[in-house]
Amino acid sequence: MSDIIQLLPDNVANQIAAGEVVQRPASAIKELIENAIDAGADKIKLIVKDAGKSLIQVIDNGCGMSVTDARLCFERHATSKIRKAEDLFAIRTMGFRGEAMASIAAIAQVELKTRRIEDELGTVVEIEGSKVINQYPEAVAAGTNILVKNLFYNIPARRNFLKSNSVEMRHIIDEFQRIALSNPQIFLSLHSDGNEIYHLPAETLKQRIVHIFGNNYNQRLVPVEEDTSIIKVEGFVGKPEFAKKTRGEQFFFVNKRFVRDPYLHHAVMNAYEDIMQAETFPFYVLFIDIDPARIDINVHPTKTEIKYEDDKAIYAIIRSAVKRSLGRYNIMPSLDFEQETSFTNLITKKSLDEIIIPTVTFNPDFNPFDTDKSKSSYSRSDSYAEGFAKKTGGIPSNWDSLYEIVEKEESVQLPLHTDADQETDRPQAIQMEDKTSSKLFFQLHNKYIVSQIHSGFILIDQQAAHERILFEQFLAQLDQHKGLSQQSLFPQTIDLNPSDNELMKDLLDDINGLGFQIREFGKNSYIIDGIPADLGTGFDEIKMIEKILEDYKNNQSEYKLSKRENLAKSLARNAAIKPGTQLDNTAMAELVDKLFACQSPNISIYGNPVIVTFTLQELAEKFGKN
């Protein structure tokens, strides 16, 4: 029997390694920009086409490479970052394995142009599928210019698994934001299909945050700074009232390297305990500077996971640093036990001579039941009642009929117990019956609707019921693309960050299909001309769109829904009536009728029950009756 174990060719081994390092265009962009940062560049330009599927180009003004280095950088485990195993515990650079360039060259068509400052001519290297096609000298600018074309061209299965351009572009923007936040001293720009998405000059961290996320973040930031013998923590956290229901604006950087660490995230969330709404996530950008010998970053191929020597101490430091910053800037409530507040309200800055004693004037001849016009010609200051009478057209002569109306209203109110109730042993709702409805409903704590059935009674969650009704209604409108619209009297303009702007472009046709009238208006801006007629009035259009996008991202990460189902669910959640809304009998009857007309009336749009049934047998058991 012949041997069956064989050594894989280099190009196959590189493609296997590329599956771990380069998962999508955003992964390749991360590796290329980090190489430019390690090369000492202070100006980096990123150009993408078709969300990086057709072209990824990174131009920097770093140190450049020699002829030999330009060819050697595409070999596996070829790196300038480390020389021996001990260097792994003193890493300050972004890359160190020497796998990124080899992995990218194995699955794409790559063209590299580079020149050192001291050289007169640069070098051009063309490589496809790990094979060097051409290499020649050429006059190029100092630094490095690398073009990655047709990513995954020789792995069609991997290319087919890529998402739509809008989704892949959002991943690119996320990676770009992380790099931009960790390096505010570097000029960075991002161009997509000929449009400039970001233009970030060298600036401070706070300015970089505002440029990336918007001007409204300028008032939301609270600085954090803590220096200990173990770590140094600095950065910004968001005020608790601006916390969002979706993740995505939480950034941890360890030695300027972005990491995902649920343990440290819990430390920040613990610092916000009792001052933030449940199931919300605060904004934070925190930098941890630590001795490289105390951590191990060689854990995951993407280098987003780190092991710490003393993680419990780091947890405690981060928690206390964030909590102290929130208290220092009066975000958290505090008590001053040394302040005497007993006479605070009695202190006045005016002198006693300037204080005027208040007086009360009245008309002793005023009679509210006197209809004689000659007696009602008082001055405006004579009485409040007369002024009110003038505004309302005088005091009505049939004022005594008011008491008759009250007596009529009292006579039509249903009593708590009637003779009929005692005969039939049937409970009645303590609410006046509406003439338009044959059934009686009772609202419990303005949250639930109680309705009697033959076997007992049912309890309906009014918000979940309305969400189910709207969800199926919006889903039908999306299928037909015929949502009724209500024109806004004053169109509103909404500005989005680049990531939400890409999402908005992808959803715009479907959002308008629901009844919205939204059109693009310049860079990252949209004009809202109308909203769905089913929403009624009283909605803030801008907040509505922001919440829809936020819930859409949250649903996408948790439930993996289709685009239309996700959009219908997001809009239904924000348009439904909220707990605490008082409903009359007619509104409750209409809500219940529409609920039972749905395809799935018993299940909410999030899989929870909408209707709970209580039988007479269950009630009898509660009272100890068999």
Walk me through this protein's architecture:
By secondary structure, this protein is an alpha+beta fold. It has 3 domains: 10-200, Histidine kinase-like ATPase, C-terminal domain (Heat Shock Protein 90); 215-329, 2-Layer Sandwich (Ribosomal Protein S5, domain 2); 443-613, 2-Layer Sandwich (Ribosomal Protein S8, Chain: A, domain 1), CATH 3.30.1370.100. Helices cover 34% and strands 21% of the residues. It is built from 18 helices and 22 strands. The chain has helices at 10-21, 25-38, 67-72, 100-106, 156-160, 165-182, 205-213, 262-271, 311-328, 384-391, 401-412, 419-424, 462-480, 498-513, 541-558, 563-575, 585-596, 616-622; strands at 43-49, 55-60, 109-115, 122-128, 131-138, 143-149, 187-192, 195-200, 221-227, 231-238, 250-254, 257-259, 284-290, 295-296, 307-308, 441-444, 448-453, 456-461, 485-495, 517-520, 525-532, 611-615. The strands form 5 sheets. The chain has an 8-stranded mixed β-sheet with strand order 5-4-3-6-2-1-7-8. α1 (10-21) packs across α4, α8 (262-271) packs parallel to α9 (311-328) and α13 packs across α16 (563-575). Belongs to the DNA mismatch repair MutL/HexB family. Keywords: DNA damage, DNA repair, Endonuclease, Hydrolase, Nuclease. It holds the Pfam family DNA_mis_repair.
Q: Would you spell out the secondary-structure blueprint of this structure?
A:
Layout: H1 10-21, H2 25-38, E1 43-49, E2 55-60, H3 67-72, H4 100-106, E3 109-115, E4 122-128, E5 131-138, E6 143-149, H5 156-160, H6 165-182, E7 187-192, E8 195-200, H7 205-213, E9 221-227, E10 231-238, E11 250-254, E12 257-259, H8 262-271, E13 284-290, E14 295-296, E15 307-308, H9 311-328, H10 384-391, H11 401-412, H12 419-424, E16 441-444, E17 448-453, E18 456-461, H13 462-480, E19 485-495, H14 498-513, E20 517-520, E21 525-532, H15 541-558, H16 563-575, H17 585-596, E22 611-615, H18 616-622
Parallel strand pairs: 1-7, 11-13
Antiparallel strand pairs: 1-2, 2-6, 3-4, 3-6, 4-5, 7-8, 9-10, 10-13, 11-12, 14-15, 16-17, 17-18, 18-22, 19-21, 20-21
